[in-house]
Amino acid sequence: MIGIDVGGANLKVADARGSAVHYCPLWTGAPIADLLAPYAGEEAVVVMSGELADCFASKAEGIAFIVNEVCSVLPGARFYGTDGQFHDGPDPSLAAANWLASADWLRDKHPDAVLLDVGSTTADVVPLGAFDRLLGLTDLDRLQRGYLVYTGMLRTTVPAIVRTVEVGGVRTPLASEHFAQSGDVHLALGHIGPDDYTCDTPDRGPRTREGALRRIARTVCADLEEIGEEAALSIAEQAWAAQLDEVREAVGAAIASAGAREIVVAGIGAPTFAPVLGGTPLSAPAADALPAHAVRALGLRESVP
């Protein structure tokens, strides 16, 4: 059995050997069926969050598209919903159920924990001790509760993280353009390597430290030579501090409301966030593609008589 997580930017597949992550931006008409073709004939269980991509007029349209694409290759696939159940076809509960699959799998292992799963685009903050209260929550509900923080390791624009920075001792507003993103911040600071920067760069330029610093300098309408590497690196540090504060606040609120005593951390951001938050990173390979591994485990559990 394989587990599949269809996100807006990435398609992740987990099996008994580990996981594979494919960059698959749905807004460009990404070939889900082509990427799944090597798995034809496998029994499959699926979660999704890609139905929110703005290429779809509605979540229902996105759900139907993803279900049809998957079933064109894996006709017996079953889909996990926010009701905690598997479905054979499109259903409103399939929208953004990937985080709930993770919670469903981890809740017995870490009943007193808050899960922090930091991906390329978002951070899920999930108290694991009260699963029944999580059932049926939409992304809107989670945003309002602080369980969904729209900041990630790669795709978040820098002005969405911090609005003003200090440059040469002067408070400076950032240009509201897609000049640089969180992947540039974390690459410049050494939190990730070039191979971890799996999405497109804003300028389609190189995934190098210098390329990242050049894009960061552009956020204050400057060239790297104009402000210097030290100033560009300082902008990156200020953006990271703001991102960390936002995530820390959400995790702290979830811990306080749930009475949790542990933080478990997954996703591409686990090596960066776990040490500074005092969290325990989940072991590989589950940490790298948690919802895909989680839905596979749930599917295997359901198949046992």
Low-confidence runs (pLDDT<50, min 5 residues)? none
CATH architecture of the domain at 2-100 and 289-303: 2-Layer Sandwich
Rg, nearest Å: 19 Å
Shape: globular
Order of helices and strands: EEEHEHEEHEEHEHEEHHHHEHEH
CATH class of the domain at 2-100 and 289-303: Alpha Beta
What share of residues are in beta strands?
15-25%
Largest sheet: 6 strands, mixed
The CATH superfamily of the domain at 2-100 and 289-303 bears the name ATPase, nucleotide binding domain
Strand order of the largest sheet: 3-2-1-4-5-6
For this structure, the CATH topology of the domain at 2-100 and 289-303 is Nucleotidyltransferase, domain 5
Calculate the terminal CA-CA distance, rounded to whole Å.
16 Å
Which percent bin holds the helix content? 25-40%
* Protein structure class: alpha/beta
The tally of beta strands, per DSSP, is 13
- Alpha plus pi helix count: 11
Structure description:
- There is one protein chain.
- The chain has 305 residues and is of the alpha/beta class.
- The protein has a domain at 2-100 and 289-303: Nucleotidyltransferase, domain 5, CATH 3.30.420.40.
- It contains 11 helices and 13 strands.
- The chain has helices spanning 32-36, 59-73, 98-106, 139-145, 158-161, 182-188, 209-218, 224-227, 229-258, 270-277, 290-303, and strands at 2-6, 10-15, 18-23, 44-48, 78-80, 86-87, 113-118, 123-127, 148-149, 164-167, 170-173, 262-266, 280-281.
- Strands 3-2-1-4-5-6 form a 6-stranded mixed sheet.
- Strand 4, helix 2 (59-73) and strand 5 (78-80) form a beta-alpha-beta unit.
- It is globular, with a radius of gyration of 19 Å.
- The model has no long low-confidence stretch (mean pLDDT 95).
